[in-house]
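[Q] Does anyone have a clean C-alpha cell version of this?
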Amino acid sequence: MTFAALGLWALASPARGQTVAELRGSSTRYRFVDLNHTFGNKVLLDALYIGVPGMNELYLGAGYAWSPSKSVSLTPILYGVLGKENRERGVVLSALLTGQAGRFKALGFGGRFFRASGGVASYDFLDSLDLTLVIGAWEAGASGGFFHQSGDWSLLVGPTLKRNDPRGAWALSLRGGDDTELRLIRVLTF
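[A] Here you go.
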C-alpha cells in the first residue's frame, strides 16, 4: 500500500483521532520536532525532524497502532527519509512502544535507517526508552538510548523526571555514557 493510499484511508476514518506535537532539545545540540496524528482507525501519519551537529533529517511516515491489550500499544512506522547533508536518502523501519502496568510506564521509539543513496551509511537507533514510576502527576525513572553506525556505538542512560498536565507532559533527563546530555522535552496532545 502506498503512502498516498494509506493517507486517503486514514482520512476516510469517521472516528475522531488524536494529534501530538513533541519538541526536544538538549545540551548536545540534539533537536527533535514531531507532529503526528492518529486517526480513529488507528492509522498514524507522522512528520518529524531530527538534527544533531552534522546531520539534519526529515522523516515522513505512516504506521498503524496495534494494541494487544488495554495497557500496551505498538505502532510500527515506515518513514521515507531525506537528509540535508551528503544527499542522504533512505527509509526507516521503526516502532513506537507505549505501555503501562499499574504505576509503571514504558515509552520507547527506535528503528533502523536503510540507506538508498547519499553519503550516510545505514544505522540503528533507540531514541529513547523511558521506564518510569507514576507518582500523582509526576513520573520518575530512567531514560536510555543508543546510536549505532558502521560498528561505532553511542550509548546514553540516566534519570528522567516527567510532569503530566492537562495539555501533555514536560520531561527532563540527564543521560551519560559516551557523552553527557541534559534533555528537555515538551509533549502537547490535542
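[Q] Thanks! Anything notable?
[A] The chain has one domain: 3-189.
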